[in-house]
Specification:
Elements: H1 2-22, H2 30-33, E1 34-36, E2 42-44, H3 53-58, H4 63-73, E3 78-81, E4 89-92, H5 95-104, H6 113-123, H7 132-147, H8 149-177, E5 181-182, H9 183-199, H10 215-232, H11 236-245, H12 248-280, H13 295-301, H14 306-321, H15 323-337, H16 339-356, H17 373-377, H18 380-392, E6 399-402, E7 407-408, E8 414-415, E9 420-423, H19 425-428, H20 432-435, H21 445-448, H22 455-458, H23 486-501, E10 504-508, E11 517-519, E12 523-525, E13 530-535
Parallel strand pairs: 4-9
Antiparallel strand pairs: 1-2, 3-4, 5-13, 6-9, 7-8, 10-13, 11-12
Helix pairs in contact: 6-10, 8-9, 8-23, 9-14, 9-15, 10-12, 11-12, 12-14, 13-14, 15-18, 15-23, 16-18
Signal peptide: 1-25
Region (Disordered): 534-556
GO molecular function, one term: iron ion binding
Length: 556
Amino acid sequence: MAWFVAAWSCLLVVVMVSSMRLSRSASSSCGSSCGHGGHGGWGPRSYPVIGCLVAFYRNRRRLLDWYTEMLAASPSQTIVVDRLGARRTVVTANPANVEHILRARFANYPKGKPFTDVLGDLLGMGIFNVDGELWHAQRKLVSHEFSARALRDLEVTVLEAEARDRLVPALAAASRGGGVVDMQDVLRRFAFDVICRVSLGVDPGCLDPALPARRLAAAFDTAAGIIARRGAAPVAAVWKVKRALDAGSERRLREEVGVIHEAVMGLIRSRRKERALLLVNGNGVGGGGGARSDLLSRMIECGYPDEAIRDMVISFIMAGRDTTSSALTWFFWLLMRHRGVEAQVLDEIAATRRARGAGEEGGDDGEGEGLDLDDYRRMRVLHAALCETMRLYPPVAWDSKHAAADDVLPDGTAVGRGDRVTYFQYGMGRMEAIWGADAADFSLDRWLSLPRGGAAAASPAAAAFAGVSPFKYPVFQGGPRTCLGKEMAFVQMKFVASAVLRRFELRPVDEGRTPAFVPLMTAHMAGGLNVTVRRRTPAPATSTAANGTEGELTSS
């Protein structure tokens, strides 16, 4: 098989070099390289056999901006990308098309085998990697679990503990030491601890520098990176051949997935034994007698087989480990550039705490946030700031489906069976046709000026979504696959924002830097978010971690 890979690579190079000679006059900018490409839609300049491979190769390091430019130039905010080695792809930033894909013709746009092939080794048959009846069954189960008060209460309890014992003490130490902290790294470790405690009922301790590096967290990081490179590969056959040969990155992926599976299956077996002992001792299950509230334990109680529980739990760890940390990283960066917005958010946090009776000094300031779920739901300004952050920097830059049958989108774009159909959240957030002439600006007014009423009457923060279609703002998808964890994600983000901002002032190490947005499985900030930390106001001494040491996150 090695000779086949070498031959294919050589052929690809020859074709690309030949094509470049034919198209030296073609510009990589949208103005001269996009238009009616002769493949049934607006898109990059294409040639026989190779399609738009030349333009794709030239723009491979700026795909997000390239796609955004072409979509903005397209009369329908839709383009067709057809290139050698890949499926015909329809990319859209048109809300009517997004609604058609996610709701009106939902059954015709499953994730599809090309998608599940990429993620299958890690996610197995979990909810994010299946379609049809299996998806419906898992969705029904998970909808029930996410609506259970016990799981939401567990999230707040875990957030309080993680912030009290690790996040706040670590940032306090950084404020005294004067070193540099990578907030992106801090937020990722915090999020991994939280999602593992909520999903698995175990504490990996990633944010505790007194503990050794966790193998499970490293395995998730490595596996996610390799999976992301699979999805971004210009020719899928390359990684598939490597997997068949058990070579290179695919061998490493198999090893890391083995670590993850072994750890989760070990927990499942341990939890089943624990549950059996409870039954033998007459303590029962179902929320009493020492029963756990984490997702894994609740699924065991529902009677699901071990492998189904494993795949489901891994899916939720993957969904929750980096999405909130990605959004919060960009949120803190944007607030450091817009101090006026930061002041508005701080005023709302202080007002909410006063209304709750949680003073700025004394009381529970060092022991917890003193706020409940309803308090976080009422934070309208903070909600708007988070929504605006994710409009410009969505945790997932794009999402793809695969057409089960021929179709025509509302804007007239033809879709063939098997075509990849992508709605492009990153580009949608920058479309003047959707958000107006100030689409590139960070402005809370576009959310706070929306009419209030209906759901907003019960939850003022809900006004940030009132009148905004999920198909115009598909950060949490829309239609039947709308993200079940949306409310839990907002609670976590508001909790962290409140806990950090009211205690500390973050200052960027490089004031003039505009970091690059990197769209892997979950987007992240290239180079991290390096800041210095200062105490905002005098506050009571924070509690220390259980081992009596205070976390250090600074680096020289």
